[in-house]
Specification:
mainly alpha
């Protein structure tokens, strides 16, 4: 049995164990009671609404994916085949890429389904567990999220192992080496990104249209609390938490890991091949990213089991304890231990195990006789990646948690009206881009330098691989981070169910506490997602260059992208424009749908005055139908735009280059779109996520009693800011994480075609 096959079987074994652990988590969560009949009556329409939207949404996504798969299969008939791929043939290559695309899309869709499935079944159980104990409620909510995250990361790893093993096993006898396979399966990452974009965008439009509509009429005009059963849009709002924050984010993180794995495998293969390392070492460098994520599943699983309150026996846990934000903070006035402190302990366990494990993996897998010191250089790169992820999380917390100055500044601005609230929020969002970019810049330069000084002969490739290892380090805790993210909407739904089913104050107190922290965890995971997207996008950009050079003689290799060329500069502007146009269309879609919800809620209040006195029941289904139809209609155009505009520009530039004697113009212009689009996308995502999170928590800070508390003019102004921030942080911002990686995976798939369109002579012999 070859070394590659042994490693692949090891990874399959890890996946099987991880699936068993996920199954145990699901059994543990589902073994808890669903709650009283009143709780189940509230939970049932949420589950039905989420399932109905999911089926329709993913039916549309499946149709679009099949059409694009056909385009890939047909267009790959014109893809160049270099000598190392000659034995596979054109039909074999196009079949592999198309199958990889469909497999990536399928598993990405399953990831969204898994996240939503567990969320809609955990919410009522969390509300019921809150009647038993605080610890029980936290564990049900977090382990529900952990089930989804473990299954999603395992599916991603298993999908890559499956397609890699299929290609390697089928074509090894034809001379295909283990290091060549990653270039043949780039379609997997593209399929994952394509499905994730529509899942995140459609879910984001749904959830925020319902949320904005419910807030404007319910909180501001009618003066009723959040999640009040009298609000006709409340069920649509709770459904939206599942299809947006759960299904969308699950697909988002799946494609992050898929794209990063494929890109890192390409870079590891390129480095080991160009340094003429032995075949066994080429295999370990190529498969190293997969083992890092296998390690991440293990460390996150241990961290999950560490999530429990200090006193698990009593109804009220442990007296007063520290409210432990990641930056420190003051004592909590609540009797319950702060949920963030509870999850932080688990995160530290997962991060510590990941830190130790990744050093062991570097020592085992990246040892090479050519460069004896390379392994610890790359170990330092991974350490910097882990530290960078932690920095992104605490920076995000600083700008979005009301314990700190930026959010309190927005709250203070609310005392003079909605206008000053919005001005302060925009200001905070723009300012919040500086620290993350500074951290990212320092990290990139450090890990690149560590790679170049590792002793490997190809310093450029070693430096780029250093950035890939840093990205792996950053994503090594992704399983735990996703569990924290899914914890948010599960807790939010549990709070809504407790409110709508008229539970006692002590139950609502627990669910409110979990909901408040769930809001913070969602903001923190968005910061983490932006950081990982930035590092992943850089390594994917370099993977694109390496892929193109695989088809060119060394004398004509593409070593840099010159923005001083007018055509490349124009490509860069188009890339930046795509980010702004996409964001504008996404936000407009939320606004249009929210207007329809507002009109419907006002109509029901006007025509059914008994709603306010509980003598008439609102028509929840009407609002659910409005936001579902709007989300399905308005997710298609922005999504297709970011796929077909770069393709059109890339092919157009290739044809122009062919006529003008600039044979590489197509790949250079595409690189310009990718480079500038990535930079603009990261900055825009930071601005949208952080400003939206800051507006949200400024409102929550006022609701604690500051500046007049609930019902005051300051509170009304803060609700306005929150409604502006909703599509920022939950629709456009998270969708940009996916867009950035979609641009990268798209160019990886279609890059060779830009060479063909230019009529370039492919290397032969």
């Amino acid at each position: 049995m070859s070394t590659a096959v042994e490693f692949l079987w090891t990874l399959v074994g890890v996946c099987v164990v991880a699936l068993c652990f996920a199954g145990w988590l699901a059994h543990w969560v589902l073994s808890h009671k669903e709650g009283s009949k009143e709780m189940q009556d509230v939970a049932r329409p949420i589950q039905e609404g989420a399932n109905g939207f999911f089926k329709t949404q993913y039916g549309t996504i499946a149709t679009l994916s099949l059409v694009l798969a056909l385009i890939i299969f047909l267009s790959y008939g014109y893809r160049p085949v270099n000598p190392s791929e000659a034995n596979i043939g054109s039909l074999g290559i196009r079949s592999i890429c198309t199958i990889a695309f469909l497999l990536g899309g399928f598993f990405s869709g399953i990831s969204g389904l898994v996240a939503m499935w567990v969320a809609v079944r955990s919410n009522s159980r969390v509300a019921a567990a809150a009647k038993v104990s605080y610890n029980e409620a936290i564990q049900v909510a977090f382990r529900g999220g952990a089930f989804a995250s473990t299954l999603i990361v395992t599916l991603c790893l298993f999908g890559i192992v499956l397609i890699y093993a299929f290609v390697y096993g089928s074509f090894q006898r034809l001379g295909v080496s283990a290091a060549q396979v990653p270039l043949l399966i780039v379609g997997y990452g593209f399929g994952a990104s394509f499905v994730a974009l529509f899942a995140q965008l459609g879910g984001g439009i749904y959830t925020k249209a319902a949320d904005v509509g419910a807030d404007i009429v319910g909180k501001v005009e009618a003066g009723i609390p959040e999640d009040d059963p009298r609000n006709p849009a409340v069920v649509a709002d709770l459904v939206g938490d599942n299809v947006g924050d759960c299904a969308g984010r699950g697909a988002d993180l799946f494609e992050s890991i898929a794209a990063e794995n494929i890109g890192a495998m390409i870079l590891g293969a390129t480095l080991s091949r160009t340094c003429n390392l032995p075949e066994s070492e080429q295999i370990t460098f190529t498969l190293f990213p997969l083992f890092v994520h296998a390690l991440g599943i293990f460390s996150s699983s241990i961290g999950t089991m560490a999530v429990r309150t200090k006193d698990t026996n009593s109804k009220k846990s442990g007296g007063s304890s520290e409210s432990a934000p990641l930056l420190g903070g003051s004592k909590s006035s609540k009797e319950y231990e702060d949920p963030m402190a509870v999850m932080k302990r688990g995160f530290i366990v997962a991060m510590s195990l990941g830190f130790v494990g990744i050093w062991v993996l570097c020592y085992i897998a990246l040892q090479t006789s050519e460069a004896p010191n390379a392994w610890w250089h790359f170990g330092l790169c991974a350490t910097i990646g882990i530290a960078t992820s932690y920095c992104f999380v605490i920076i995000t917390e600083y700008y979005t948690d009301y314990l700190y100055y930026p959010v309190r500044r927005i709250a203070a601005a609310s005392s003079t009206g909605s206008g000053t609230n919005v001005i302060a929020g925009v200001s905070v969002g723009m300012e919040s881009t500086a620290l993350p970019i500074t951290v990212l810049a320092i990290a990139l330069l450090l890990v690149y330098w560590l790679g170049t000084t590792s002793g490997l002969s190809n310093k450029l490739a070693a430096g780029i691989f250093g950035t890939a290892v840093a990205t792996m380090g950053m994503l090594s805790t992704s399983c735990f981070i996703l569990a924290m993210d899914v914890f948010g909407p599960i807790s939010d739904n549990a709070g809504g169910i407790a409110e709508m089913s008229m539970q006692p104050p002590e139950v609502r107190e627990i669910t409110d506490r979990l909901d408040a922290v769930g809001n913070t965890t969602k903001a923190l995971t968005k910061g983490y997602a932006v950081g990982s997207a930035a590092l992943a996008a850089f390594l994917l950009f370099r993977a694109y260059i390496d892929e193109v050079n695989n088809y060119l003689p060394s004398s004509r290799a593409l070593t840099s992208v010159d923005l001083s060329q007018p055509e490349v500069f124009v490509g860069g502007m188009i890339g930046a424009m795509l980010v702004f146009l996409f964001s504008g269309l996404a936000i407009r879609a939320v606004g249009n749908a929210a207007q329809a919800v507002v009109h419907e809620v006002r109509r029901q209040f006007r025509e059914k005055p008994g709603i306010m006195t509980y003598s008439e029941k609102p028509d929840y289904e009407k609002c659910v139908a409005i936001v579902a139809n709007a989300a399905l209609k308005q997710m298609v155009v922005p999504g297709l735009l970011v796929v077909f505009v770069p393709l059109f520009v890339g092919f157009l530039a290739a044809w122009i280059g062919r006529a003008a004697g600039k044979s590489l113009l197509g790949v250079q212009v595409s690189a310009g779109i990718l480079m500038v689009g990535t930079i603009a996308g990261i900055l825009m995502a930071l601005f949208l996520n952080n400003s939206g999170g800051a507006w949200d928590n400024a409102k929550k800070y006022i609701e604690t009693g500051a500046y007049g508390g609930k019902g005051s003019e300051s509170h009304k102004a803060s609700v306005t800011g929150d409604t502006v921030g909703d599509p920022f942080k939950d629709t456009a911002g998270p969708s940009l994480h996916v867009l950035v990686k979609l641009l990268s995976t798209l160019t990886l798939v279609f890059g060779p075609l830009f060479l063909t369109s230019a009529g370039i002579e492919i290397i032969s012999g």
